[in-house]
From TrEMBL:
UniProt superkingdom: Eukaryota
Descriptive protein name: Integrase zinc-binding domain-containing protein
GO MF terms held by the record: nucleic acid binding
Cited Pfam families: Integrase_H2C2 (PF17921)
PANTHER family: PHD-TYPE DOMAIN-CONTAINING PROTEIN, PTHR47331:SF2
Segments forming domain Integrase zinc-binding: 4-45
InterPro entries named in the record: Integrase_H2C2, RNaseH_sf
Amino acid sequence: MAEHVKALHAKNNVTLSMIREKYWIPQGARNVMNAIKSCPVCKKFDAVPFRLPKMGKLPLERSTRTRPFEYTGVDMFGPLRIKNQDGSKGKIWGIIFTCMTTRLTYIDVVSDASAFT
C-alpha cells in the first residue's frame, strides 16, 4: 500500500512495476489489484456519479388532451377524530380526487366510510 501512495494512487500496472523494482511477490498482480480496490482515496476518485434512471413513457390518459377529471385517481384517508359542536366526538374521512391529465386535486370530507354510503 505504501508503494501505491508513493505512485500517487496510480493504477495496477504502475504500482506493480514500482514494487517489482525491489521485490518479487507471488501473485503480485492480484495482491496489488485487491489493495487498490480497498484504497479509500481511489474509491472516492473512481466513484461514478449518480444518474437518474430513464423515465418510462406516460400512460395514454396522461399524455392526451382531455377535459379535466375525465381520467381520475381517487384516494381515501382517515379516520380523523373530531369534536362536534355539541361536544360529542366523532370520526371523519377525507377523499382526494386527482385529475390524471392536469394533476388538479379536489378534496372533500366524508362523514361515513361504510360500504353502504
